[in-house]
Amino acid sequence: MDSVYEKILEYVQGLEIIDTHEHLPSNEHIWLSTRREEHYDVFKEYLSHYFSADLVSAGLPLDDLTRVRDADLPVLQKWDIVEPVWNVARHTGYGRALDLAVRGIYGLDGISRTTIEAVNAAFLASLKPGHFRRVLHDLSHIRVSLLDDVEEGLDSIEDFFKPVFRLDSFVLPGSHEKIRFFERLTGIRMTSLDDWCECCRNTLEMVLRKGVIALKCGLAYHRPLRFERTPHAAAEAEFHDFLTAIKPHDDRAQIPVLGVNCQNYMMHYILELANQRGLVYQFHTGLQEGFGNHVAWTDPSLMTNLFMEYPEVRFDLFHLGYPFQQKVSALAKNFANVFIDMCWAHIISPTASIAALVEYLDAVPFNKISAFGGDYLFVDGVYGHQQLARENVSKALAIKVRDGVFGVDRAKEIAHALFYTNPARLFQLA
Q1: Contacts of 354 (CB under 8 A, 6+ apart)
Q2: Fewer Cβ close by (within 10 Å): the C or N end of the chain?
Q3: Is the pLDDT of residue 1 over 60?
Q4: Do the strands 142-147 and 161-166 form a parallel or antiparallel pair, or are they unpaired?
Q5: Which among 165, 301, 169 is positioned nearest to 222, based on CA atoms?
Q6: If we measure between CA atoms, which residue out of 219, 187, 181 comes closest to residue 202?
Q7: What is the per-residue pLDDT across 27-43, written as a single tens digit (0 to 9) for each?
Q8: Given pLDDT bands bounded at 50, 70 and 90, which one contains residue 248?
Q9: What is the pLDDT at residue 363?
């Protein structure tokens, strides 16, 4: 084993870190209440996110994935269904994170035919109060995690989370219920575009008072990240058509898509609010979770006009923009208000994450890079991801040391900045 890497990794393994992005329930009671159903098992948990997409990519039929996740079958019978694709996908970042989680949390030798029943038993035994804190704090040494899309859970959020809020529904309202939610929250009835904007502004003010520390945009799952500036009149006309279209419908019916001009107008309106307040705005860029997505929509260079128009907004670009990681590097180098966030990236592709960080350290001041965000729906995955992240960052820094760019002591200082100081400063965490 490379002694330089070992020295850096030993230091990095002991670091307390900040987690820039999670999708976990806002409190452990919610997590436990949804996992105590009669037929819950480790497959339903571990295949709720990420690795299931690799299994489908490897050839698992969607009907079989549903059976493995939801059917009341013995775990060995479920293993028979997934084993052929599991074994060809297990070396991806998603697969490796699960094996690391099982080893680190439960002391078992990864996930295989010989261990799956023991893994399931250990997982079921963990479904009790304290598991969140044990995994996130005691085992992963995470000081605080930024929790995405917290709405009604703001008043009951765990003390090891900081809430991040999405205003995406003001750009693409997806349901009558979402509109009603914001009407109830603000007391404003939606009759015009100006009402919609006022509701958006009031919502932002309310959630900031409740402790929200940043905004998040996930619209790259639904449309390209290019948001042209649009006149109020064009947006107002589309919003009027939208209101007219949804009025006759039952609240349970799917609503029409808000017009593109109005979408763009609302995105700029939200960014103006964020600009006035100097907020951090996290943006999903790059690969979308799942399968069958439009990856080209997520190109971070499509946002260049936003970086120019809103200089007080600190844009935190997620996931290295993978596979557009070099564009992220150029944007962070060019714009003082653009930052690089490696959340999710270490399990998308460990090798790409190492290579990107090596390049970023050549091109971008390292105070603009945050090294880790777990980005998981379930807590065990966070442990596996942070372990892989620590290894990847250590490997990248060892390459720079061997190239003579800096020494081991400087590598340790940079590691501390990437994992802790940089996100603490960016999000103004005490």
Answers
A1: 392, 395, 396, 399
A2: C
A3: no
A4: parallel
A5: 169
A6: 187
A7: 888 888 887 776 899 99
A8: low
A9: 98
Across the range 166-179, mean pLDDT stands at 90
**Structure tokens, 58:** 């490897």
What stretches of 36-92 show up as alpha helix (H) in DSSP?
Answer: 42-46, 51-57, 62-70, 75-89
Whether cis (ω within 30° of 0) applies to the bond prior to 129 is no
DSSP per-residue letters across 159-215:
TTEEEEEE-GGGTS---HHHHHHHHHHH-----SHHHHHHHHHHHHHHHHHTT--EE
The tokens for 162 are 């900081």
Q: Where are the beta strands (DSSP E) in 240-394?
A: 280-283, 314-317, 338-341, 369-370
Calculate what percentage of the chain has a pLDDT beyond 90: 85
pTM: 0.95
Question: How many whole angstroms separate alpha carbon 382 and alpha carbon 377?
Answer: 9
**Contacts (Cβ under 8 Å, ≥6 apart) of 224:** 294, 296, 297, 299, 302
* Residue pair 388/100 in contact by the 8 Å Cβ criterion: yes
CA angle 213, 319, 141 (to 5 degrees): 60
What phi-psi label fits residue 141: left (phi over 0), alpha (psi between -120 and 50 degrees) or beta?
left
Tokens of 219: 């619209």
What b/e string do you get for 115-146 counting C-beta neighbours within 10 Å, with b at 16 or more? bbebbbebbeebeeeebbeebbeebbebbbbb
- What pLDDT score was predicted for residue 253? 64
d(C-alpha 141, C-alpha 387), whole Å: 10
* Cα–Cα distance for residue pair 324/416, rounded to 1 Å: 26
Query: In which residue are the tokens 């649009």 written?
Result: 230
Q: Band of the pLDDT at 255, cuts 50, 70, 90?
A: confident
Which of 430 and 59 is assigned the larger pLDDT?
Answer: 59
Q: For residue 232, what are the CA distances in angstroms to 120, 190, 235, 243, 277?
A: 56, 17, 5, 16, 22
Please give the Cα distance from 163 to 161 (Å, whole number): 6
Mean residue pLDDT of the chain comes to: 95
- Taking residues 68-88, what's their average pLDDT? 95
* 3-class SS of residue 411: helix
